[in-house]
């Protein structure tokens, strides 16, 4: 069953005829390979955003692999613990699939089509675009607006994912006692959250911005201008590399090294900053620079206006400065909670360590207020 949702620019929709978004309380739930993150937002009477709850729960290796939930019961139990840890009573949840699990295409269709005719046309187009039977697919679409190239036509964004992928996310949420009402796509959620940071940059949304999300095992680059994604690429690099370097340098197990990495330099020997951290930052900066070079060689662009860094490894001290030196472009770290009121129940020290991890979860939580 399809439904249409009018949306401007980069806004998206819910898969599989899930409920339309309303400004009722909503949890943003981001399930990655190493953690689950939760964010809940609200607005004050003046319309300013407030952070209500946020929390992170670790996952063991192998529970989620390449976006696939391999250990359903364990992940559901981790989500239950996360909700309890966060202290929220909200049950409605927005989740997301990784971009690799979703096929998205923009198509042009006649503007005079009514909703039923539009659904028929989208299904016909999707049958040509998708390499597996439509009966196995959760399919939805979003009317973006008038076509910029063909008079009398409108641009429609079509998205499709295997039903089993959508059902896994829904099922985990339901097993944890939640009500899944939105299934989004991770890159769209992260862009929505990053938009607040981009608007504060000189030049705002008209700038060409490279958004890097540095996870534990992979890094995603999105180059955006306004509501348009110009380029996207995944790189097999992430914070796991630093964990491995710490383990080798100091003879620690992987779990011990990961714990000490999260505790910061004070938990490691005095030579950590120069012997381990800076070499890792230099290597990471070079890899991000190579990712940008791939962008430059495959598009008409030869520069970006700014680099934004997010993800769990973006809070490493000195990363933004190293990336600026390695690439030649100004870089800064995204804190998705900048400008929000934060309750005293969330310790500032914890938020300082964790904030860069919450970009996708914050974007999902912001769906509460999307029109």
Automatic annotation (TrEMBL):
NCBIfam families: pilM (TIGR01175). Residues 26-194 form the SHS2 domain. The keyword Cell division applies. The keyword Cell division applies. This is Cell division protein FtsA. SUPFAM superfamilies: Actin-like ATPase domain (SSF53067). It comes from Tepidimonas aquatica. It comes from the Bacteria.
């Amino acid at each position: 069953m399809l439904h249409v949702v009018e949306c401007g620019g980069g806004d998206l929709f819910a898969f599989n005829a899930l409920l339309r978004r309303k400004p009722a309380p909503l949890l943003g739930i981001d399930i990655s390979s190493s953690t689950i993150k939760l964010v809940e937002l609200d607005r004050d009477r003046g319309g300013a955003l407030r952070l209500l709850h946020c929390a992170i729960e670790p996952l063991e290796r192998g529970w989620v692999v390449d976006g696939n939930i391999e250990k359903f019961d364990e992940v559901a139990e981790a989500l239950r613990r996360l909700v309890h840890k966060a202290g929220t009573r909200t049950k409605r949840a927005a989740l997301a699939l990784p971009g690799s699990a979703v096929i998205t295409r923009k198509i042009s269709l006649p503007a005079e089509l009514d909703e039923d005719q539009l659904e028929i046309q989208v299904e016909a187009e999707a049958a040509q675009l998708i390499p597996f039977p439509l009966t196995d697919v959760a399919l939805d679409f979003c009317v973006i607006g008038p076509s910029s190239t063909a008079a009398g036509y409108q641009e429609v964004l079509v998205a499709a994912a295997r039903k089993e992928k959508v059902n896994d996310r829904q099922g985990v949420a339901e097993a944890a006692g939640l009500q899944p009402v939105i299934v989004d796509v991770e890159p769209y959620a992260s862009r929505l959250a990053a938009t607040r940071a981009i608007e504060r940059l000189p030049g705002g949304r008209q700038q060409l911005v490279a958004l890097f999300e540095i996870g534990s095992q992979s890094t995603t680059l999105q180059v955006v201008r306004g509501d348009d994604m110009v380029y996207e690429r995944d790189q097999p690099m992430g914070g796991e590399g630093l964990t491995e370097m710490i383990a080798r340098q100091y003879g620690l197990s992987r779990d011990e090294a990961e714990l000490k990495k999260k505790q910061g330099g004070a938990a490691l020997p005095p030579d950590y900053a120069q012997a381990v951290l800076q070499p890792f930052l230099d290597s990471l900066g070079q890899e991000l620079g190579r990712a940008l070079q791939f962008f430059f060689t495959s598009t008409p662009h030869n520069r970006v206006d700014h680099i934004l860094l997010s993800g769990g490894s973006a809070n490493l001290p000195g990363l933004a400065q190293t990336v600026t030196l390695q690439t030649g472009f100004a870089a800064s770290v995204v804190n998705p909670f900048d400008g929000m009121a934060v309750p005293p129940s969330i310790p500032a020290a914890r938020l300082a360590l964790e904030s860069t991890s919450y970009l996708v979860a914050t974007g999902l939580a912001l769906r509460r207020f999307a029109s």
